[in-house]
Amino acid sequence: MHRRTALSALLLAGGGAIALGLGRPWERVWSAEAARQAAFLNVCAHPDDDLYFLNPDVLQALAEGCPVTSVYLTAGEANGVNAPQDEKPDFEGYAAARQYGIRAAYAAMTTGDRDAAWRREVRRLPGDVVFETATLVAKPHVTLAFLNLRAPLDAADGGSNRLAWLWDGRRDAQPYLRPTDSPLPAPGRLRRDDVLAVLASLLSTSAPTVVRTLDPAPEHLRYDSDDGADYSDHQDHLYAAYFAYEAVRRHRAAGGAAVQVQSYRGYFNKYWPRNLSPAVYERKFSYLDIYGWADGHACAVPYGCGDLQVGAGARNKRYGRSQTYRHPGGTAWLVAYAGGLSAFAVFAGTVVMWRRGEGEADWAAPVPVGGQNLVPHLDTVVTPDGRLHLFGVRQDLDVTGPRLVVVHGVQERPGAGFTWTDVGNPDADGDPVRARELGMPYAVADAGGGLTVFVRDFSREVSVRTAGPGGDWGPWTGLDGGGIRDALVAVAAGARTDLYAVTDDELVCWARESPGGRFGKRRTLLHGSMDGTLAVVRAVSGGDGPVIAGQADGATLTIAQDTGTATVKANGGTGAVAGLLRDGLLRLVRRNDEGRVDVTEPHPPGEPPVWHGSGVLFTGAPAVAVDAAGVAYAAVVGVDGRLWTCRLDGLVTKLAWRAAPAPPALSQV
């Protein structure tokens, strides 16, 4: 039976000294050499984007004591009315109220005191470029930056103050306002390159290991080939993401450190199954209440101490009830290969690989293996001839927006370097707008050496492309049934392949009886509110174990086997679940509500697991693999950009996580 050995790389970079409590088992291997500083740069369109869409990740970084810099490109002054505070438009006042609210929220998240003091100042760059920063006095590693670009709802020139016009050149420069009480000397104007220069400066001064931003390719709500797409998200969100990705690209080209990028879905979260536990949800919205001045606490400024357009109605908007990634990570990025293990991740658009040979105790430093402008995650398979195949998505940005294509990296022979080619996009022959919503690829290899890659397409259906042993790709074909989320996994057993997907309320499956055959009709395996995640468990005995689907609120997991499905307690947390099946016992690995690693004791599938927290703060999803000696390992990519692994045997309380180096600068790739 051919065993699939996939991968799906994660996303951060740099280095990180993470403040860990004493007496935890992983501290004993957290060496001084490993303790480089993890840091975050959040690139948002408006004050509150990070509270709605990037949390609880921001909260977890702050709780770790990591440096966090959040930059807001627009003033977000909307119609200028901080209702019901203002009776008439006051754009400068409303922008100031939003900034007051976001400072109060960050102060509360970091120190517990919303009234903690900030040092506000003007930063200057060559060419008379100025922007405002606020640094938390008690915790000076927390900084907020404001570019204050105008973004009114009812611009007299028909919306020319949108980020879109600055990005695509319809305006040479955009005005920025001076919020009330701002240290800025006066209003002014910023050009496209000025915005990128500010982001370059922040990339340099904050030295992030992780860049977080919004969705560069949000999902459509309605579509008409003549009128285009009606998107689920605010247009400033996607253009903020464009600026972030372009800034990272230039940072890498200039020799900057390897940085991972994570994009978060915005307004579409309200159409997505909720995935936050009740406790995390309430904590998240407690800070939105501070931002929105929902408690009505005493205020000494006339423009208001928060955003009353959010006010007490933050929960009513519904798009903050989840935190979801635009490019979700899978759990098969740790690969048994050449007797040892390999692991892969995407840094600054390029793939890096860690290797540990057979019998070796330490991982070698990661090396770049190619790819350009790739979004964070990958999938991989090993064909029977021993070659590794990597699948990802390249995102090329120009003034019209992102162009997405599935890419394939393949070794000419085992152990050789990777050659990268395009596999295409199932919507590429139509309107280019449709091609933007390409999902993340998932691939399987058959016993004869053929490959099949699956992606979610614009119609929210599955598109499939197959290559024979010679490597020639056939046409894209579609499977029946729509409404799927961007989570696909396939299980290959002998000649048969089963493909699994989730909708918002179903776990579904298609089957193919032979590599050259066609997939049958979609079957529903389970009805229930899903959280959009899916993974395949690794089995020590060969082949694949059960499929694990997450359910809403982080409360339960569904385990799907040939014998049926079972639902068990999940202990909170978000993201896909990695797993190991050994001697009929299951071990699960998942991010918990604190952003660390939860691991279960071995237990029979379908029985309630016992979860234990361990490990470091990490990104993406965990992974599990078994080497040639039968030793199982769990792995995560930490927020410091390092690969962290532990032997997955013995008691959970005795797990020892060990770090491999983070990638260097990638400018020479």
From TrEMBL:
Keyword Zinc: yes
Keywords tagged on the record: Zinc
GO biological process, alphabetically ordered: glycoside metabolic process
Name of protein: PIG-L family deacetylase
InterPro entries associated with the record: GlcNAc_PI_deacetylase-related (IPR003737), LmbE-like_dom_sf (IPR024078)
Signal peptide from the UniProt entry: none
Pfam families according to UniProt: PIG-L
Domain of life the protein comes from: Bacteria
Classification via Gene3D superfamilies: LmbE-like
